[in-house]
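Example 237, ligand cobalamin.
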Amino acid sequence: MLGNLAESFVDEMKQAGAALVGFADLRSLEPRPFPKLTTGVALAVPFADLSLARLPGAPEADPAYVEAYRRSGQSLDPLVTRGVELLRAAGYAAWGYGREIFFDRSGGDMNPSAYLCAFYQHKSTATLAGLGWIGRMGVLVTPDRGPHVWLATLVTDAPLPLAEAVNESRCGSCRKCQEACPVGAVKGPAWQRGMARDELIDIQKCQAHRRERGQNAGLPMCGLCLAACPFGGEFLR
Ligand code: B12
Ligand code: SF4
Ligand code: SF4
């Protein structure tokens, strides 16, 4: 049973566009962006219906997808702003991390000392909040929506009911994302908590292909591995 605060908070977040909301115990995450705020709120917002290049095999990124990608990502900041407002109005500390709003108030989210790596990973809050697991292609997969979700994170000291973490892959014997990747970037092992990204995916190969594929759209873009995933397909047109 969720308490009153949690219930009304989840309702509000769903009205503001979240499909999934989970509460995570962040104490196993070191370092934490705000050490005293040990509860994470994982928010998952569905991609627009025109999700992820339902044009498998096209040599260039589908411009309609790229537009939908840009647009749907814009929903994250209002959502985290609303979440922070609600928690603060209830008397708790809260900070949010969306698309252009970062925990790092100096205005950045990427860690310059590591290749294509942020200071904070939404996927970590999401697995700890029980929303899903890391698929073979290195992206969070949820049972209902598959990988077709944006992620955002709040941190707070509010007394919210913490979920049980997901600690291993539920991909089973499926390898569709690995088969779909045109450059062989998906290495193949099933995820377990503690694995590094490099064990799952060759990110240099992935990014080189995203650059090439997204040239026509002016934005690195791919996502064929996500489009191939059998989870969540029923929500896409
Ligand atoms: C840098 C970045 C990229 C890079 C690197 C991708 C990568 N996999 O790391 C590039 C430019 C290649 C990229 C591509 C894409 N990206 Co991107 N990207 C990011 C960004 C900004 C940071 C990711 C990062 O720090 N990676 C470094 C490694 C170390 O971390 P990680 O893989 O994210 O997460 C690891 C940890 O969370 C760990 N973990 C899991 N549970 C736990 C628990 C504990 C306790 C601990 C310690 C660790 C842990 O396992 C994960 C996998 O190794 C995030 C936003 C964010 N801040 O999270 C978006 C993000 C990951 N991207 C996203 C998307 C949608 C994409 C694309 C599909 C875009 C596209 N259409 O082309 C592709 C997918 C490519 C792929 N197969 O991964 C979404 C993924 C949503 C989801 N369902 O998971 C995110 C979360 C953005 C968002 N706000 O929703 N991206
Ligand atoms: S985004 Fe494209 S290049 Fe990167 S792993 Fe997925 S299918 Fe491969
Ligand atoms: S396509 Fe298959 S292997 Fe890849 S993430 Fe989805 S379920 Fe897992």
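Summary: The two ends are 34 Å apart (CA to CA).
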